[in-house]
Design brief:
Length: 360
Amino acid sequence: MPEGTQNRFRDRLLTEAIAEWLQFDVLARRLPGPDLYPPYLLVAVGIGIEYGIFDLYNYFISGKNSFLVEPNSLAVPAMVILAVVGGRYIHDSYASAIAALRIEDRDSDIDATPFESLVPFRLRVGVLLVVVIVNNAFGFFVLGWGNLIAIDGIGLFLFGTLVTFPLIYLPAIVDFGLSYFAVHVSVPRRLQRADLGLFFYDPRKMGGFGPIGELLKRSYYVYTGALLLYFVQTYAPVLLSEFTTTPYGTPGPVIQLTLSVAWIVGILTIGYSMSRVHSIMKAEKDRRIRELEDDLRNTMDKPFDIHEAEIADESEYERITTRLQHVRDTKTYPTTFTMWSQIFISVLLPQALNLAVGVI
């Protein structure tokens, strides 16, 4: 697939824009070795400073909280790394999947323009500003900046408030969150409005929608991974209380409810996207079967009389039955049995852990 075609459907991410603004793209090009994705370098430097300098200073000099005594806190940067990787994967895979549909090669007047932007950049900037304001308001009015400074120290507090959260953590989360919901809610609707049809000669027997199914599945895996990391960050101090310490209290029912709600949201999104794509594929398959049935009848004399029906045009009958077999062999889900098994496990795991901890 030509790279230019994929780039047409590939959005610019917030983390990419911030990395470029801070000149991390220039730094990445100057480093030896293979080209490094600038947001990876941005995240590595930000987390390295936060945990390699401020956090260690807190532990060895100030005697404050540190990941050395609360290793579960490392789940937070792990979630950010996962969000950066997941956001990049979603947009790269979306561009590849849409390009693989070969919209402009089809014998129709389908407009590919609605597929060019997964999530508008201005929308992501607007959401980021709102999230930053809400995060700071929550820290000030609910948690209390004084309490946060007492726990983390003034240096780590300022670095987190002014640098890592507004420039690294929150942009990565906004990028991934909006992209995830766009893939599972917006993309199926775009496919339905475009009325693309299916590629019935697809050797994978998925009508050409295989890359779409992979995108839906793997983006859900990343979402599940984020839930599991949040679970670790929240409940590890309780489960490992004999080995770790934390200045924060035991998670209450609100935390368990939050995890349950996030789990339900994940199920609803993957269920909605898969069912919507299934309805598109099934409707197209049924329509083509009806058309070919009509064509078959036209090649026969007295087609409704099983005793007297005769094939009037043998060669045309064989061509139509060959086409009909391709259509009948095409699946109505863009997934395989293995993919469904993996999705089923990823659906059960987060809530199973959440309920197990609740029992404990």
